[in-house]
């Protein structure tokens, strides 16, 4: 998937920014398809240090433009974000909470989005703050809340479908992935952590 994405960008047929915008818009569209009654409300979006977090910034901007109250929780310093994610961070017209220094609270809103890690997860999630915020997402999902994972539930290996050894990981009721499903969506722990799987095209 990463190779497909890079090949498309390198060929000049599409930019990473366009892919990110389509990915974020695809998640919002899938959300409305899966929870049609939730037309507006309050959303919490957990945004990690890479382009998965970048998708989260796009989702935050689109929901906010549609009248949602949005709480963006960031992990990692904005200056360290990859270019496309940084661009979408800068487009946010709302305050963000630093997940490393803001104590997580039980979420009582309408929509929780896990945009912490996607296909770039390289090791178990061991950071205590990240684990605590993911736990809130997982508890919200378990309580029947609208919980969405962007591309892959954070902590789940996209190839094997296993939770990385010792990693924090959160369940979602809906996982929205891009272009093609990954083996991890169907294998091992995948189905339990992904919930319903939507595959959205982003023009690859
Ligand atoms: N597939 C597509 O067409 C599109 C995918 N998009 C989205 O992009 C992500 C992949 O983005 P990428 O930046 O490659 O990866 P992540 O966002 O998952 O995160 C990578 C960063 O996270 C750090 N990292 C990795 N594991 C950990 C950990 N356990 N704890 C802390 N930090 C971690 C990693 O750091 P390294 O030191 O490992 O380099 C990176 O900083 C994809 O999933 C989609 O959501 C495009 O936006 C749209 C098209
Ligand atoms: K994710």
TrEMBL record:
(6S)-NADPHX binds at residues 51-55, 118-124, 151. Its EC number is 5.1.99.6. Pfam families: YjeF_N. It catalyses: (6R)-NADHX = (6S)-NADHX; (6R)-NADPHX = (6S)-NADPHX. It is an enzyme of class 5 (isomerase). GO terms for molecular function: metal ion binding; NAD(P)HX epimerase activity; nucleotide binding. It comes from the Bacteria. Binds 1 potassium ion per subunit. Its cofactor is K(+). Residues 1-204 form the YjeF N-terminal domain. Keywords: Isomerase, Metal-binding, NAD, NADP, Nucleotide-binding, Potassium. InterPro entries: YjeF_N_dom (IPR004443), YjeF_N_dom_sf (IPR036652). K(+) binds at residues 52, 114, 154. Belongs to the NnrE/AIBP family. Catalyzes the epimerization of the S- and R-forms of NAD(P)HX, a damaged form of NAD(P)H that is a result of enzymatic or heat-dependent hydration. This is a prerequisite for the S-specific NAD(P)H-hydrate dehydratase to allow the repair of both epimers of NAD(P)HX. This is NAD(P)H-hydrate epimerase.
């Amino acid at each position: 998937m990463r190779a497909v994405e890079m090949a498309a960008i390198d060929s000049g047929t599409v930019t990473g920014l366009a892919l990110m915008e389509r990915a974020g818009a695809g998640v919002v569209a899938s959300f409305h398809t899966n929870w049609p009654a939730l037309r507006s409300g309050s959303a919490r979006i957990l945004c990690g240090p890479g382009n998965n977090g970048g998708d989260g910034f796009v989702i935050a901007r689109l929901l906010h433009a549609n009248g949602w109250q949005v709480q963006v929780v960031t992990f990692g310093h904005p200056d360290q974000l990859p270019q496309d994610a940084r661009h979408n961070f800068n487009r946010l017209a709302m305050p963000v909470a630093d997940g490393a220094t803001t104590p997580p609270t039980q979420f009582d809103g309408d929509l929780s989005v896990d945009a912490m890690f996607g296909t770039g997860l390289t090791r178990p999630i061991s950071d205590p703050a990240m684990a605590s915020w993911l736990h809130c997402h997982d508890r919200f999902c378990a309580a029947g809340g609208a919980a969405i994972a962007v591309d892959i539930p954070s902590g789940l290996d996209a190839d094997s479908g296993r939770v990385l050894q010792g990693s924090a990981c959160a369940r979602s009721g809906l996982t929205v992935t891009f272009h093609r499903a990954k083996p991890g969506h169907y294998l091992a722990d995948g189905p339990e952590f992904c919930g319903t799987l939507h595959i959205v095209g982003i023009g690859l």
